[in-house]
Amino acid sequence: MGTFIQLVIDGLSTGSIYAALALAIVLVNQATGLINFAQGGLAVLSAYVAYACLGAGVPLLVAVLIAVALSFVLGGLIERFLIRRFEGGDPDTAVVVTIGLLTLVTGITAVIWGYNNLQFPSLFPLTSVNLLGAVVSVRSLATTATIVAIMAILQVLFMKTKLGLALRAVADNPRSSALSGLPVGRLLMVGWGLAAALGAVAGALVAPQLTLTPGMLDGALVYALAAVILGGLDSPIGAVVAAWAIGVLENLVAVYVPLIGHDLKIAVPFVLIVIILVIRPQGLFGRKVVVRV
């Protein structure tokens, strides 16, 4: 039982890494209707900004807050001067632009800071506690709790606030929203800015666990996209639950299914995607889209 609990908690901690990026992807999609493949690269860049602030003697928490604020501004500027040129056109073109942006941001990060592994300090204590016979890291518990809090905040934002409803309206129909008096341009900038700020939080949570490198989140981004598809593009709760499910199932399958083991556990989320898309194409928590003809 102790081993099982350990695997589940470790899976939740790993899933929280995927969930942090998945939430940022959902946020951009809710605000603009696009999937931002550059989210991982922007999160890594923000982590490097926080690292540079630490090198200048800034306290850790203040450095992370500075990175979050700068990421919000950067996200808004990217939407205003790059993404907006492709909005309203072919969605596939905008997706390719975000992939190109990921390559650009990763390259710039590597040119400035190099490819060496850097140690980023943890926001949470590195001590462990005993939980039902399993030794659990306080950092893992705190990371999971942070993701739960962010998920709840986003759910309230989109469902209960005027800003969230305006962001959803702009994503669904920008032209009608503009005719209704909504400042579409500013709302799109806010949506991208919030997603970039959330990515900065994700980078600060992940960097201490993976070591800081330009490609730190490349693998996690794949899992995050899988979580978004499984949970639903319009559901923060669904993205987090799916990310946790992926993390836990990976751990359990690797240990309890010898045929798969650690080498093939990466196939688990993709098998889940196929099953879910066949049974429920909109995702576990997504809304079914009804088109009037």
Automatic annotation (TrEMBL):
PANTHER family registered for this protein in UniProt: ABC TRANSPORTER PERMEASE PROTEIN, BRANCHED-CHAIN AMINO ACID TRANSPORT SYSTEM PERMEASE PROTEIN LIVH
Organism: Tersicoccus solisilvae
CDD domains per UniProt: TM_PBP1_LivH_like (cd06582)
Signal peptide: none
Record key words, sorted: Amino-acid transport, Cell membrane, Membrane, Transmembrane, Transmembrane helix, Transport
Family to which the UniProt record says this protein belongs: Belongs to the binding-protein-dependent transport system permease family. LivHM subfamily.
Pfam families in the cross-refs: BPD_transp_2
Descriptive protein name: Branched-chain amino acid ABC transporter permease
Regions crossing the membrane: 7-28, 48-74, 94-115, 135-158, 187-206, 212-233, 266-285
Membrane topology: Multi-pass membrane protein
Family matches, as InterPro entries: ABC_transp_permease (IPR001851), BCAA_transport_permease (IPR052157)
Subcellular location: Cell membrane
